[in-house]
Specification:
Oligomer: single chain
CATH superfamily: P-loop containing nucleotide triphosphate hydrolases
Number of helices: 6
Number of domains: 1
Order of helices and strands: EHEHEEEHEHHEEEEEEH
CATH architecture: 3-Layer(aba) Sandwich
Helix content: 25-40%
Number of strands: 12
Structural class: alpha/beta
């Protein structure tokens, strides 16, 4: 029988980090890099430019602390629109990398999936490639959703002994007429409400204003549209994007 002082949450922080495109999610990881964390990033979006930029500005000595793999299926033009060139490979390759990284146990390493949206798309292409003759496309969505959910279950399980940040865009879904809710976007609409069940922490990157007046922040408390959550009630409702993840990790890890 275990006691609470042995619970993995005291060693590893695992969270979902959502936001619309351009809200600064990936770049804001730099505050954790500056704190000395090491990263293993599964880059499904090919979008690490902002992190590289900020790291060169703020902590150039820590650039080597980020290990990443960029994986995307290659598309080609066709008369019916863009299609996968050859066989879809990104999803299977991602799982192979995760299998290798899952052997690591390190409280100072953060695994980042960037993004869940692109990961879900690669899972859909994989499912489609596995059963190209399916008469109902819902079969592809179901298989992809099951595969993504199993991956999330693995990342949040006790056997994956690293910190985890899953970055995702937002999928806005009308739950009743005139009422929308925002969920982490993976594949289809059914998976969004399920993903938060695997995490104790779900936070939002948000931009307000425009141009030079743009202000970006991390929200930790529920909004009227998105059910955010953190297990530590002492965390501020809003955190500056530039340092927010660093502050959040300190609160969640009792530092």
């Amino acid at each position: 029988m275990a006691t609470l002082d042995e619970h993995q949450s005291s060693r590893f922080t695992k969270l979902v980090y959502i936001g619309d495109s351009g809200t600064g999610k990936t770049g804001s990881l730099v505050s954790l890099l500056a704190d000395g964390y090491r990263f293993k990033i599964l880059d499904m979006d090919n979008g690490l430019d902002s992190l590289v930029h900020f790291a060169r500005q703020q902590c150039p000595d820590k650039l080597k602390n980020v290990e990443y793999e960029t994986l995307r299926d290659e598309y080609r033009a066709s008369k019916s629109g863009p299609i996968i060139k050859g066989q879809p490979k990104a999803f299977v390759a991602a799982l192979e990398i995760l299998t290798k990284w899952s052997e690591i146990e390190d409280e100072e390493t953060i695994f980042v999936l960037d993004s869940g949206s692109a990961f879900g798309r690669s899972a859909f292409e994989w499912a489609k490639g596995m059963n190209p003759m399916a008469k109902d496309p819902r079969q592809w969505y179901f298989s992809a959703q099951q595969a993504v959910e199993s991956t999330i279950a693995m990342l949040t399980g006790e056997s994956f002994r690293m910190n985890v940040i899953v970055i995702s865009h937002i999928n806005y879904k009308e739950i009743v007429e005139g009422v929308n809710k925002g969920y982490a976007n993976f594949i289809g609409s059914a998976l969004g409400p399920t993903i938060p069940k695997y995490f104790n922490t779900l936070v939002l990157a948000e931009s307000q204003g425009s141009g030079t007046n743009t202000k970006r922040k991390i929200k930790t408390m529920p909004t009227g549209i998105i059910d955010l959550k953190v297990p530590n009630p002492s965390v501020e409702r809003e955190l500056p994007l530039e340092t927010g993840l660093s502050t959040l990790f300190k609160h969640l890890r009792g530092q």
